[in-house]
What does this fold into?
Amino acid sequence: MSIGIAGTVVFWVLAVIAVLAGAAVFWVDSMARATYALAVSFVAVGIQVLLLGLSYIGVITVLMMIMEMAIMAVYMIMFMGMNPALMPMSMVHGKRTAVATATGLFLALTAGILLAPWPARSGDPVPDPTAALGEVLMGSKMLVMIVVSAVLLATVIAALVLALPRGRYDRFGDDLRRRPPTDPQPGGVGR
Amino acid sequence: MVDPAVPLTAVLVAAGLVVLTTVTAVVDAGLRDPAMRDRATGRSWVSRRAGAVLVPVVGTVRLLRQHRRTTVAADSLLWRVGVVGLPVVALLMAALVPVGPGTVADSSVGIVWFNALDVTVWALVWMAGWGPNSVFGLVGGYRFLAQGLAYELPLMFALTAPAVAAGSLRLADVVAAQDGLWFVVWMPVAFVVFCLAVAGFAVWGPLSHPAGVDIAGGVFAELSGVDRLLMLAGRYALLTAGAAIGVTLFMGGGSGPVLPQWLWLAVKTGLLSAALIGLGRRLPTLRADRFAEIGWLILLPATLLQVLVVAVVAARQGGG
Amino acid sequence: MTLQLVLVVAAALFSVGVYGALSQQVVVMVMMGLELMLNGVILAAVACYWFLTPTPTAQVVLLVVIAAMTVEMAMGFAVATLLHRSRNSDMTDMATDLRG
It folds into this structure.
């Protein structure tokens, strides 16, 4: 099974876009542009995944990464407080060490990739990878699903505990048994 | 590799989207409450609203002629991307809809593609708010993301319900599985959440706080000329395309007795988008920070219960 | 299009991510570097799926990588929020309490 000449050309164009957009994250002049350059890089890799037949994983990558970049833009602006005007911003420390490490790492990885004895392909892809993925997740790899869901729940709880500045006393005042709460930030349900 | 009928279907789908978007805009103009003096002239309801057909045409011509203004130090790349992206996303959503025997983009994971497209709207509306370097747009963009977080997870689960009932993520399979009974009959919660999410990503009705009057139009505040036309048209087009996907997922797609499939699809989409316009005019705007609690405490458990019911029914019917 | 070429592209993405993670002062930019590294891992995992083992198990690896990325972002933002709230700063250099 192959992806054809057109598929190969599109794949390499997307590869170049992904690497250039990734590098652009660190030299554009605006926080929002940095975030969306990263989004472009992720979308390029997601479409490459799609091209190689994994339609579900590819579209999930595109979906999740665009959503994450939208939220990341919120945090970026919140912490750095810059306005949409384009200002040169480059806050780095140890730039030469970083460049040297990154270049050295790239050379080492390339050497490893080119010199490693890669095995031959074992079999052909199934015609419906989404259905195969679903069956394997509900079957032999159900432990992966269970562990990932427990980890994600723990992440949600941990992130909320770390990030929330309000506690019970902010909601109820001094007497924790009072109902309804005198919450200075009421929600929409009227709790 | 590419079906030769696809370009023709694509042109027809695009034309259909333009026509239905205009109908949506006409309905919206018609339902807009006329001034008190107009009501006092004693003309009938129909004759007062008859001028609504011209409103989109006049508005389009006026905006095309209007001089485009910009703001100081605006981030025009992101601004243009956000503004132009909305009609493009609406077109891509319309491309997913199975129109009669063919589909422009017949993907095996069509439902998830629709989900990815409505998440793209998040990024685009935020960019349209951020770009003009104006506080009104910025506040509108942030309100959009805040309420997006509240309705997105219920939407994802509401999209799972027809997929589980049909046993497939392809939109054509979902239409085929509604042969006997439309999904809206036994998945009402999922349908309501879906319609709310369409109102959300079209910045419409109860979820129009990002374009609120208290921030001078929010994300629409600094737009003028052809940018404003593109974004307003994109808003109506998203509403229409969302209604088309809703018809496909919940109201049987193009199925119907006598007329051809594309005509039934157009009629049903027109009715659903008119209903969304009417409800949007009736319901009050929910504040984005209050909507967060509504989304997480009411919509999400209800949607999860709905998916449980659907899964139990599907398991009994399918596996036995 | 061979396995080695695609893996070299993935290594390039990974290296750009390493540069970002090491050199940036702002916590959110460091996280962007980490995201780029995971982006490279995703591409490498897909290449291994296509060229070596086209089985559903390889797709499960991709799902785990995506889940790991989600967890990293969530915890990173939570810690950055906490840091900003307590010290009114978003620089990694201001959070070196555990050093030395």
